[in-house]
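WARN  no MSA supplied for this record, continuing single-sequence
INFO  ligand: magnesium ion
INFO  echoing inputs
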Amino acid sequence: MSTDFNYGSCADTTPINVPELFGSKVFSLKVMKERLPKETYKALKKTIELGACLQPELAAVVANAMKDWAIEKGATHYTHWFQPLTGSTAEKHDSFIAPTEDGSVIMEFSGKQLIQGEPDASSFPSGGLRATFEARGYTAWDCTSPAFLKEDAAGNVTLCIPTAFCSYKGEALDKKTPLLRSMNAVSAQALRVLKALGNATSSRVTSTVGSEQEYFLIEKEFYLNRLDLIACGRTLFGAPAPKGQELEDQYFGSIKDRVSAYMRDLDVELWKMGITSKTKHNEVAPAQYEMAPVFATTNIATDHNQLVMETMQKVALRHGMVCLLHEKPYAGVNGSGKHNNWSLSTDDGINLLDPGVTPEDNAQFLVFVCALLKAVNTHADIMRATCGSSGNDHRLGANEAPPAIISVFLGEELTEVLLNVSKGEKTVKKGDTFLKIGVDSLPELPKDNTDRNRTSPFAFTGNKFEFRMVGSSQSIAGPNVALNTIAAESLDEIATRLEKAADVNAEILKILQDTLKDHGRIIFNGNNYSPEWEKEAEKRGLPNVKTTVDALKSFVTPKAIKLFAKYNVLSKEELHSRYDIYTEQYSKQLNIEAQTAIQMVRRLYIPAAIRYMTELGSSISVVGKSATVQKELLDSIGGLLTSANKKLKKLEDETAKSQAIEKVDKQALAYRDKVKVTLNDLRADIDAIETLMPDDLWPVPVYSEMLFEL
Ligand code: ADP
Ligand code: MG
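INFO  complex generated
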C-alpha cells in the first residue's frame, strides 16, 4: 500500500509569547483577583485553599464574573465537565441565553447554575447505584480546579466547569468524587503526623502528581484503513516490520519536523488552558512520544491529564495524523504507559518526600517513606487493581515494562540509610557509627542514582514516588485515589503511635524498625524484568496478578471495603459498582476486539488470500511443470487459510457463547480464557499469510508503513 502525503503544510513559524499565552483560557486566581470584589475574591480563595464548599451568596458573584469573562472571550455555552466511570470526560452544553418578554435574549448564568447541574445520567454506567427510574445525576463544581474555556475548530467556545458527579443519594458516579475524598483523607492523617512530629505550621497537606503521558502517532490515511485501530485502538493483526526498536535509535532521538510541528501546536493548546506542558521527546518504540507536565495538585493534575489526552487527539487530526493512546497499539514494540509521579506537599511549601537537610527534616522524611512502604506492602493488590484494563494486560505481566508484581525501589543509598538508622540505638560492634534520629542528618542522596532503575513499578525518584503501572489511556484518578487512601491509613496508624509516645524520637526509631521487619519484603532494587525476581517475589509472598479479571477482585475484598469505608472514600456499594463496571468494560472491550477481528478476517484477509491463490493457480496452469515456487506458495497459503478459517469459526463460536453469559465475572473469564486465546491463535495464521502475500494484494497498511512512514 502506498499513499502520497503532504508533509509541509503544517509549519507555523509565528513566534509564541508563552507568558502571555499561558492560562489565557483559564478563569484563574489572577483573573478572579482582577474581576471579583476584594472580599469575594478573598472568601473564594479561602474556600479553594481549604477545599471547602462554595457558599451560594459567593457563587452568585463568582458566576457573574465568570460569565462576563467567558463571553468576552467568545463563549456562548457553558458545561459542567465531569468524569464518569467510562474513564473519559463528559459534557453537555447549555447556552447562556435566557429569553425576555420582548422576544430578545439576555446572557444569564446564575450562582446555582455554577454550583450545581442536573444532567440526565441514565446513559452513564452506575453499576447499580442509580435506579433506572432515577435518571438524574448531580454535578457539583470542584472549585479547587479552575474553570476554563474549550475551543473547537469550528470556533465554538465553551465555558467548562470542572465538576464532581453524584447520584440523587450522593453516591459517587464518577472518578473525581472519590479523588477529592481521598485528598481530604490523606491531608487529615498527614497533618496528624506532622503535628506529632512537632510541625504545627501547616494547615493542609495536598497530594501532588505529575503524570508523564506516552502516545503514538500514525498517518491518518493508514489509520483509516485499519478497522482494528478505529474500533479497538490497537492492531489485532500485523506481522512484525523488519526493523523494530532493537537499534535503540528512537528514544530521545531528534524529533522529525512533522512531529515537531505537532508538538508545538499541542504545547500552544495546552498552555492556553493553563496546562504546564514541560517536556517532550521521542520514546522507545518507533512513532512513540511523550509529554510531561510540571506536577500539580492531584485533582488538577487529573483534570489536566484528561485534557491532555483529548487535546493530543484533536491536534493530531489537524496535522493529518491520529494519536493512539492505547496501551499496546502494536505487537513486538513497547506499549505506552503513564508515569504517575506522586508526592505530598504542605500548604507552606514543604515536600514531605524530600530528604531535606536538618535532622528534624530527615526524621520526618523517613517517617513518610516508612508510611509508603507499609501502605504499598499492605495494599499492593489494590494498586494493581487500579491499573487493570484489557489494554494494560498487554503490558503488565506480559513480558513488558513494568511487571505485574508490585515492589518499591528505594535505591541502594536510601535502603542503606534506612537499615543504618534502624540499627541506631544498638551499637553492634565498636567503631560502627549509626545515624541517630533527631540528631544526625542523612547523607545526601544522589538524585541521579534514583533514575537508574527504570524497571520498578513504584520507584523513589529523589523527592517523589513514581508509579509506573498506570496505562496510557486510563484516567489517573483511580491510581491516585488508591495512593492517597493507602497512605492515609498508614499515616493514621503512625500518627496514633507518635501521639501516644513519651519519646517521639525513640518511637520513630521503633516505627522504622517495625516497618523494615514487617514490610521490608516490598523493597526491591534489582531488575524487575528478570525471571529471578519473579521467583524471589513468590518466595517473599508478594502478589503477582497477571490479568485484569483477577486484579479487579481486589476492589471488593473485606480489606479493601474496610479501608475505603474507614476514610469515607468509597462505600461498599460504590466499590461493588466499580468492580461490576470495570469487569463489564473488560468484557465489552474484548467483545469489540473479537467482532472486529471476525470482520477483518472474513471481509479482508480471506478474500485477499483467495485472490492470490487464484493468481497462483492460473500461473501454475500457464507455466506448468516448472511452476514449483507457485505450487509451494499455494500449498503454504492454502494450509494457513484452512487453519485460519477453522479458528475464525471457533472465535465466532466462543464470542457468541461469551456474550450469552450473564454473570459479569464469569463472562469476563470466558472472554479472557476463550475469546482472547482464540483471537491470538487466529492472528498467528493471518500474520503468517501476510508475510507470504504480495504487497499490492494485501488489503491493509502493514507495520513497516504504520511505524516508520510518518
Ligand atoms: P524524569 O522522571 O524524566 O527524570 P522529573 O524527575 O523531572 O523527570 O519529573 C518527572 C515528573 O515528576 C514531572 O511531571 C514532574 O513535574 C513530576 N514531579 C516533580 N516533583 C514532583 C512532586 N513533588 N510531586 C509530584 N510530581 C513531581
Ligand atoms: Mg519518569
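The pocket of magnesium ion (ligand 2) is lined by residues 212, 339, 466 (CB under 6 Å).
INFO  checksum written, moving to next record
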